[in-house]
TrEMBL record:
Protein name: Peptidase A1 domain-containing protein
Keyword presence, Kinase: no
GO CC terms in record: extracellular region
Organism: Vicia faba
Primary localisation category: secreted
């Protein structure tokens, strides 16, 4: 870390000790999850064509894959892998006392929640005021010798002049965020909420968690997307500092989402606690695998894929695909993808358009009588059948492209958000299972 940056940060410190306070009441609530390109998003540009939105989304997806690859395959110190302004889904939070509204990226592939803070040594542009910890009556910082600071990986821990805890998160494209670890009130604007023993709340009542650990970023450099719309990130991964880990037993270690197509006029829903539980006819579940080598990511095991009448098996059993809400496309590692793409081309039987736009491997001209094959993903204990909307994107006028591509990296596969559209997806960390059920997410 640059010494000048470190000294400047150290001078910004406060001097109180943070501890993690568990929430003893059972909490159940939901919040809006807004696709960044949807009409509901602050990023929305009505003059942008649907095809251009798809192109931008696939670019973000390719960029995200590269960060996953760096994190999964690198022998160097751990890295965060998400560039916050490149995420696909936004949520609204309120932080501090008095509360300051922020749009942040909701990310199942990251742990630490952080926002840009004042006094800022260097920050990327945002069109709302920076959070200022000195103006929040409920902020406290963390000391380096506290248990909370040790939740940061050692390579990401720094100590300030007054023993305060700093984080240093670096990204795959040489972007980074450096700042102070602290806690404050964090509230979520919810469309529905229930506290155990109480009645349902009114619309837009905020659910507040008084001792939430977060990063206050004083030195942030990002190399793309200077839109100024998003100001940070909410980590929904499995790491110890994520929102899910912090809420822990208060939400029964459960959350779920239901993703609408990003052109929809409805918002997706992110649910916590009992409200996150999915049940009834059609629900299937597979073991949720969290690896000690990569504790932030959610893995499941893909045993095989059926395309039409043809099935092939992966021969793997130890968790071979990451499920991720922030990656648009689905990526399969080369041996699996090779079998998959051959089967799809044979089943559709339409000639591939030459010079297909990157990163797609198979694009073809739309035909009204297209016979798209049934595609089923065979996870351990759960068969998930996908619709054409989960597999195809209209990339250009009259040009359909398969939303499944090769990762080109052995050992790296990601189930992206297009494949999850109109499914309720429940993460049960306590029960160590991931559940799916088809749903009309605009209504649910």
């Amino acid at each position: 870390m640059d010494s000048l940056v470190f000294i400047t940060l150290a001078l910004c410190s406060l001097s109180s000790i943070l501890f993690i306070e568990s929430i003893h009441i059972q909490t159940s609530f939901s919040v809006d999850l807004i696709h960044r390109d949807s009409p509901m998003s602050p990023f929305h540009n009505p003059s942008t064509s649907q095809q251009d939105l798809i192109k931008k989304a696939t670019f973000r997806s390719t960029s995200r894959l590269s960060r996953f690859s760096l994190s999964l395959l690198s022998n160097e110190s751990p890295e965060s892998i998400i560039l916050p302004n490149n995420g696909d889904y936004l949520m609204r939070i309120f932080i501090g006392t008095p509360p300051i509204e922020k749009f942040v990226i909701a990310d199942t592939g990251s742990d630490l929640t952080w926002v840009q803070c004042s006094p800022c040594v260097n920050c990327f542009p945002q069109n709302t005021p920076f959070y200022d910890s000195t103006k929040s009556s409920t902020f406290s910082n963390i000391q380096c010798d506290s248990q909370s600071c040790t939740l940061l990986p050692k390579a990401q821990q720094l100590c300030g002049k007054s023993n305060e805890c700093f984080y240093s998160y670096h990204y795959g494209d040489r972007s980074f965020s450096i700042g102070e670890l602290g806690f404050d009130l964090i509230s979520f604007g919810s469309s529905n909420s229930t506290l155990h023993g109480g009645a349902n709340s009114a619309t837009n009542v905020n659910i507040t968690f008084p001792k939430s650990i977060f990063g206050c970023g004083y030195y942030n450099i990002f190399t793309s997307d200077k839109s100024g719309k998003a100001s940070g990130l909410v980590g929904l991964g499995a790491g110890p500092l994520s929102l899910i880990s912090q809420l822990g037993d208060s939400i029964g270690r459960k959350f779920s989402y239901c993703l609408v197509p990003f052109a929809s006029n409805s918002t997706s829903k992110l649910r916590f606690g009992n409200e996150a539980i999915i049940m009834g006819e059609g629900v299937v579940s597979t073991p949720l695998i969290i690896k000690t080598s990569q504790p932030t990511f959610y893995y499941v095991n893909l045993e095989g894929v059926t395309v039409g009448q043809k099935i092939f098996h992966t021969g793997q059993t130890d968790g071979n695909i990451i499920i991720d809400s922030g990656t648009t496309l689905t990526y399969l590692e080369p041996p699996i993808f090779d079998d998959f793409i051959i089967s799809v081309k044979e089943a559709i039987g339409i000639e591939q358009v030459e010079d297909s736009s990157s990163p797609f491997s198979y694009c073809f001209t739309y035909q009204p009588d297209i016979n798209f094959p049934h595609i089923t993903l065979h996870f351990t204990g759960a068969n998930v059948t996908l619709e054409p909307k989960n597999m195809l994107l209209l990339y250009e006028s009259n040009l359909l492209c398969l939303a499944v591509v090769s990762s080109n990296i052995e050992g790296v596969s990601i189930l992206g958000n297009v494949a999850q559209i109109d499914f309720q997806v429940e993460y049960d960390l306590g029960g160590k299972k991931l559940s799916f059920v088809p749903s009309d997410c605009a209504k649910n």
